[in-house]
Amino acid sequence: MYLSEHKFIVEKIGEVENIKNHQLLKIVLRKPGWRDEFGDQVGKDDFYEVQVWNQQISEMPVLKKGDKVKAQLNLNGQEFLDNNNGEMYYTLRLNVRKMELL
């Protein structure tokens, strides 16, 4: 499911990892908390670890901590069965669809 574009601040950029036949880059984004009518921050900041896969890594802008970006994310959910105990588990991932520097 594609989410609408949002503005974030880059908190951390990981190293490109090789996983089987794929490449993965993890980035931590911060969404500043909301501010009141006086400009004082009232809400807490939210942090999101997002993933960039394969060719999209080379299409990403060069990022550094503190950069302001506009990103559209793709929300992916998955369920899987643990064969050891028979329990169902669920995962949730945010993948980058597109990102640009502001």
Describe the structure in brief.
The protein is mainly beta and 102 residues long.
What does this structure look like?
With 102 residues, the protein is mostly beta strands. The protein has a single domain, classed as OB fold (Dihydrolipoamide Acetyltransferase, E2P) (Beta Barrel). The chain has one helix at 56-59; strands spanning 6-13, 17-19, 22-31, 46-53, 68-81, 88-101. Strands 1, 2, 3, 4, 5 and 6 form a six-stranded antiparallel beta sheet that branches. The radius of gyration is 16 Å and the shape is globular. The model has no long low-confidence stretch (mean pLDDT 93).
List keywords for this structure.
1 helix; OB fold (Dihydrolipoamide Acetyltransferase, E2P); 56% strand; six-stranded antiparallel β-sheet; mainly beta; 102 residues
What kind of sheet is the major sheet? Answer: 6 strands, antiparallel
pLDDT < 50 runs, ≥5 residues: none
Radius of gyration: 16 Å
Tell me how many strands there are.
Answer: 6
- Summing up helix and strand content along with how strands pair, one would put the structural category as mainly beta
Number of helices: 1
CATH topology: OB fold (Dihydrolipoamide Acetyltransferase, E2P)
Shape: globular
Write out the CATH superfamily name: Nucleic acid-binding proteins
Whole-number mean pLDDT: 93
| Percent helix range | under 10%
Beta-strand residue fraction:
over 45%
Give the distance, in angstroms, between the N- and C-terminal Cα atoms: 24 Å
| CATH structural architecture | Beta Barrel
The total domain count is 1
